User: Fold this.
Amino acid sequence: MPGQYDRILKETFKEVIGVIIKKVLKLDAVSITPLDTKLQITNEREPDLVFLIRLRNKSSFILHIEIQSTNDTGIPDRMMFYWLFIRKVYKKVPQQYLFYVGKRPLRMPDHMPELGGAGRYEIIDFNTIDCETFISSDNPVEIVISVLCNLRGKNGKIVVRRLLQRLKETVTGELELSKRIRQVEVLSQLKGLQEIVFKEKENMTLVYDIEKDPYYRRGKEKGATEGKREGLLEGKLEGKIEGKLEGRLEGKREGLLDGIQFALDIKYGSDQASVFDKISTIDDINRLEQIKEFIRKSPTIDDLIRLIG
Assistant:
């Protein structure tokens, strides 16, 4: 699975795993504990999600979930590989699930044919789950994953519009809203809905508004106050005006940098730290605006590195 999808799918499903376990897997869990997925093995592989699940009847088991956006003929071998090593590391037999979130019809087996009924895992095809299962929730992450589910003959534009509106109603804060919309934008590509999402997002003016960013407002207010004080103390009207303008520009710059850092973190994860250090030295507001827009469109972090030199 492409790295961008892989990271955002893992992050999104990890956030909403409690709901998935209850609504999709139909398990009555009383506690869900994430386990380390970095297995110390020579073959560098890492399972997507592994949890220790404790049920209400006091029994417990290891839950292993793999997320697939494409049909992979090698999935039975991979699932068996993980089964063996999870059992070895945690001394429990894992229950395995394969979540399929791709657009094409599911064509993967739920076991390794050579082993007959052994090594079987359950496949959850999100194309069979009604999007209403999640879109009517008050949990923003549930609303996000509804874009992966079945529209069941519904008009894609209407569903996407409702999805974005539900996010706007349930998310508090511009940064959080920007993050959730970015997740929808990325995941919608798996279902061929990215153009609809982009147009509906623009129509609803859901893009990140720098004027509403708390860092920008704080800098703007600070600059305005300092400018007013300086102008009064010096008795010069131009001091007051220049102080306000300078403060507003610095406030906007701080807000832009904060927005850029957030966008880098969402799109590129931990790979972006050194890149942001270089961007943070830029004072030109127009240049920062250009970089912010470029991050939204750039396919790889290497393109961004070339842009900033």
Notes: Residues 17 and 29 are 11 Å apart (CA to CA). Residues 210-308 form one domain. The mean pLDDT is 79.
